[in-house]
Amino acid sequence: MKILVFAERNAALAELCSGARALGTQVEAIVIGALDVPVDADKVYSIPAQADVMLEDYTESVAAIMDKAGAALLMVEPTKRCKVIAGRIAAMKGTSVITDIMEISAGLETKRMVYGGMAIRKEKAASGTMIAMVGPGVLVASTAAPVQGAVETVAFVEPSAKIKVVGRQKKPKVSVNLPSAKRVIGVGRGVGKEEDLAMIREFADAVNGEVGCSRPIAEAEKWLPKEAYIGVSGLMIAPEVYVAVGISGQIQHMVGVNRAKTIIAINKDKNAPIFKQADYGIVGDLYKVVPALVKQLK
Amino acid sequence: MQIITCFKVVPEEQDIEVNSSGSLSFERAKLTISAYDLNAIEVGAQLAEAHGANLVGLSAGAANIDESKLKKNALSRGPESLYLVADNGLADMDTYQTAAVLQAAIAKIGVYDLVLCGEGSADLYAQQVGVQLGQMLNVPTINSVSKVTLEGQHVIVERTLEDEVETLEIALPAVISVTSDINLPRIPSMKQILAAGKKESTTWTGADIGLSSPVKSIETIETKAPKQTDRKQEIVEGDSDEAVQKFLEKIAKELK
User: Fold this and answer.
1) What is the widest separation between alpha-carbon atoms in chain B?
2) How far apart are the C-alpha atoms of A147 and A27, rounded to whole Å?
3) Chain A closest-CA separation from residue B57 CA (Å)
């Protein structure tokens, strides 16, 4: 079986190619311009880099390579840009993209989260070429040394509709690094005002933790950057300890913290679903509990 | 200027039940407008209000999406009229099927300058329908849009990516998918709810749009609730000094 791989970043391309070895007999990579890392691929298709075009403008070129290569599976890195490219190609080919895959078997059966994390859906392509978006860490890297085959330069195909890039700004570096934090304090709607976050930060400092939040806090209130949002369409974290403060425990949030070793909950509503999913909890007013904890922990 | 906002009707998540086998039961699940699509409707409503454009709502799915409460809910949020493609042949569609049906419906509606979609649906969140629809309509399409400004025959959009924010100029007609933090969808006022009842709504079958059973491209093998990690559930009740002390004793070693 031949697998074709496309990614926005070369590091991800190398990772996907290496992982694809376990699934297919033939692995071929698509790159724009030149490669700056070695990839484990039997063949590399190189589309000449164009001036002043966005990555999405290579969609038609990637589709043309797919026709040429005749692969059973196109594996794509799950970035926002690649979601446009993969989706547009799928529309051209009369198929759908299986996005954000958690697992893929040798028989190309995939698993992904559905219903806000309430369920895992197993699915496969019904016919034709399968297009799947596979994140880092899903595939097991091959242990063999990468062997890179010949590079074939293919022509750039003019896009049917161009979008003009007016400007680009790097996002400011976010100071939170939740995925690598050992302890995370999550804030939810139970925290009433933005200034009350000071108390939460003090608590986080006392336990050497980072502060994250549920979706409304990041998106509706905008008290914390989107990078701090934990949940189904945000971060999935696996800290040693997760303390949920004023979080009710909706499934969409909990899938983001299910892998925490220990979950601790502080919530004044006895019936909040969080208590069913916590190792330790206290049914009480967070405005009393948190300062008391900080005092004791210090 | 005509703007079409597409929205998906999904089961209310809180009403979905997990059977003992791990499969899901939707029997008690009310239908609702997918949360992320409320942002797309709101974008459409604001643009329509600011530029005197006509906003139309469009949805496709099983026959049960043709329900008066749902239609009123959608219409109370800004669209002047509604089109539904409601047909049991269109139940549980994959993203290609959904985009194909929306494309056929838009062709039948006939006029559009801008199509808005939510970033992904609340139930499956594949984040694909908008881009597939754009490709099928053969117009520019982009996702992850966090701001939209209409300027004559094009839109200026801000697009938030993993580590950068782009400003793009897109010629109309176009299809754009907007993020869930682009706005706060309105809570319809009494007046808007009452007005919604008087607005026009058209329901088509698959046959009416010439697409009664688009071909499936994804086969679902099973949908099951994952095994939950067993948690200790040692809960202290109350926030008296003693209760907090007891709680602290329990968690002290975890937080040391």
Assistant:
1) 70
2) 11
3) 23
pLDDT at A138 over 80: yes
B76 at interface of A, judged by CB pairs closer than 8 A: no
Is A109 an interface residue toward B (CB < 8 Å)? yes
Strand residues in chain A grouped as ranges (E):
2-6, 26-32, 43-47, 73-76, 97-101, 103-104, 110-114, 119-125, 130-134, 150-153, 164-170, 183-187, 210-213, 241-245, 262-267, 280-283
By Cβ distance, the residue of B24, B135, B254 closest to A91 is: B135
CA distances from residue B201 to A72, B34, B79, B119 in whole angstroms, order as listed: 44, 19, 10, 25
Of A109, A207, A263, which has the smallest distance from its Cβ to B255's Cβ? A207
Query: In one letter, which amino acid is B172?
Result: L
What's the whole-model pTM score?
A: 0.91
- In DSSP terms, which residues pair with B141 in a beta bridge? B175
CB contact under 8 A, A161 and B142: no
Give the integer Cα–Cα distance in Å for B167 and A131: 29
pLDDT level of residue B206 (50, 70, 90 thresholds): very high
Residue B233 has pLDDT above 80, yes or no: yes
Whether the CB-CB separation of B215 and B95 falls below 8 Å is answered with no
Query: How big is the CA angle at A64 (ends A61 and A67), to the nearest 5 degrees?
Result: 155
With an 8 Å Cβ cutoff, are B235 and A293 in contact? Answer: no
Q: Count the neighbouring beta carbons within 10 Å of the beta carbon of residue B243.
A: 18
> Token pair 């009452």 is at which residue?
B194
